[in-house]
């Protein structure tokens, strides 16, 4: 079932709070970063795929521009990049309990025995100080509370943010829930039917606060070498093993998926991975706080594919934009390789103008030990532009450590109206930022070089809007 494109607008279907008319052109409104038609959004909830449609749920206050009265907003896409907002999926007064963050699954084997009709049950999990289950029998558009909303598990202490995952080796389902019992940590539960849950173990760590996610990932793409990655709302993670009941890791401290500021007022928080993906990719989206307009607050990061890759110091998570970004490319310009100094670099992009775009560049730093190079964005307006540079002396990109690979550094930038995402060396570095590009007002791009460096390749792709002119009638 695919709901009509304007379903979130029709007053007869959605009388409590029809969304305001918008052309998605307000200042700072991302053109390829999802934001709600109106109101506040924060954490990503229960992203999943079902029968040709990607479902994206999210924490949502449709009544105002600040956090409060949490609902589960809902948007759908057929290609993972163009989104259509749907009516609210979970609503206070209609659905019981605190409708806070949580995860979801598609019950393709009907182990829950909830199926009645043509659709597999879709189950989502929410609630504070007790986990409540809601299920959909129409493909993820409307939900009913299971067992009148009675909690299926109640962890000790304060708890929230249940996430459910499939453990194929054990032929069972698992649930991870954050609680503060004895300090930050998560409880693990197991189930055969997605409804009756048994406590299995607890994993404790000071850094493990809110919105946990446990993901099975093949190391270096090898399906026979599965490791498990556990991360928190901050994007901090450890890699380890999960035996069906207990998670273990020998890491002394966590790494981070994203190097942007991880906080409620930062630019990366509470990411989750899509369930039931048709091609087994691990795809993640997160809340990107801080941006706002006249009728909306907050947006989500562009979806990225996460991969577990071996490095000299062990396995690490790398992130790259999903390949569906190619659907947004409306033009492409490239430049040949060559050695550049300050003057030659300045001339290279002098005639380039763009609003929303992707830059993909690779530099050879061999023989250039004291150079700084990168891009100045949104030039030509009253502001001086925003710079992203690599420093060969400190081996940092935008201030974050990044060593050359075989003497080369790859920089990939996604530049939206109020959002900037930086990728270094095929996702070894992943950094989401909020940038007030509107205050700079220019549409120029400059390649900047201090010293000399060899440009190996450079492409600039202009990116179109994900909104397709969607407006309320």
Topology of helices and strands:
Elements: E1 39-50, E2 53-61, E3 71-77, E4 84-90, E5 104-106, E6 122-126, E7 132-136, E8 144-145, E9 159-167, E10 172-179, E11 185-191, E12 198-204, E13 213-219, E14 222-231, E15 236-242, E16 247-248, E17 255-256, E18 269-273, E19 282-292, E20 296-300, E21 304-311, E22 314-321, E23 329-335, E24 338-340, H1 342-348, E25 357-364, E26 372-379, E27 386-391, E28 396-397, E29 400-401, E30 408-415, E31 419-424, E32 429-434, E33 444-450, E34 453-463
Parallel strand pairs: 1-20
Antiparallel strand pairs: 1-2, 2-3, 3-4, 5-6, 6-7, 7-8, 9-10, 10-11, 11-12, 13-14, 14-15, 15-16, 15-17, 18-19, 19-20, 19-21, 21-22, 23-34, 24-34, 25-30, 25-34, 26-27, 26-33, 27-28, 28-29, 30-31, 31-32
Radius of gyration: 23 Å
Which stretches are low in confidence, meaning pLDDT under 50 for 5 or more residues running? Answer: 1-5
The end-to-end distance, rounded to whole angstroms, is: 22 Å
The chain-level mean pLDDT equals 93
Instruction: Choose one word for the global shape.
Output: globular
Tally of individual helices: 1
How many strands, what sense, and barrel or not for the largest sheet? 9 strands, mixed
Give the proportion of residues in helices: under 10%
The count of DSSP E runs of length 2 or more, i.e. the number of strands, is 34
Give me the secondary-structure category.
mainly beta
User: Which range does the strand content fall in?
Assistant: over 45%
